[in-house]
Amino acid sequence: MKAWGIAFIITAGLSGPAQAATCGNTSAGFPAWIEQFKKEAARAGISDRTLNSAFKNVRYATKTISLDRNQRSFKLSFEQFMQKRGAPTIVSRGKKLKQQYSRLFSAIERKYGVPAGPLIAIWGMESGFGRFTGNQHTMSAVATLAYDCRRSAFFTEQLYAQLQLIQKGWISPDFKGAAHGEIGQTQFLPANVIRFGVNGDGSGGINLGTPADALASTANFLRGHGWRAGAGYQPGEPNFRAIQGWNAAGVYQKAIASIGAEIDGG
Question: Residues of the signal sequence (predicted)?
């Protein structure tokens, strides 16, 4: 993954115009939607060069739609979800990584107030500690979800963020990530790269494919969602709300809190 900077913010005007393109629930209208969206994106400040390169290889992402419609693991009981996600393995491996990266986690906690446990829990569940960060064409995934009626407005914002990342040269048009367009070792959506991406190793750039930047950015995300240094993060405690900001599924939130507590020794 290419090193990134974060010297800009998505302007407020970008998310509005694109919503005029008509969404659809089948692949039939996708090519026409792209052409309409490109016109609106150009009016919103995305260059023709960026649009042409970004959409050159975009295809309707059937796999993304299938996964979006069938997120069955979030409907499991807590015990079933923990078993499916391999929680004991994440805890065991996570404790070793906490020692291996002790200086990094100490620095992150000093700066952002977030301890190692929940960061490692997210890292393990999202990418198996960086072993698999995705093999899907992210432009196709995000464009398909922006076109799809189920969450069109949300993913239209993500699509504009993705185009900004491409326009600035921070990722390539054919960048590979997860099925919903997530990026890096803790799986940031494009807009969150812009809002919360930070450098964690002093290199000067931002590369969410590295543990340092991914973990520091995740801590920054949690702080941005109300994390308070020293407060608890179990259900009912102050910092659990920040964990809720990470993922909307209750079973996922509880898993982060539970795995994190075991790693932190609580």
Answer: 1-20
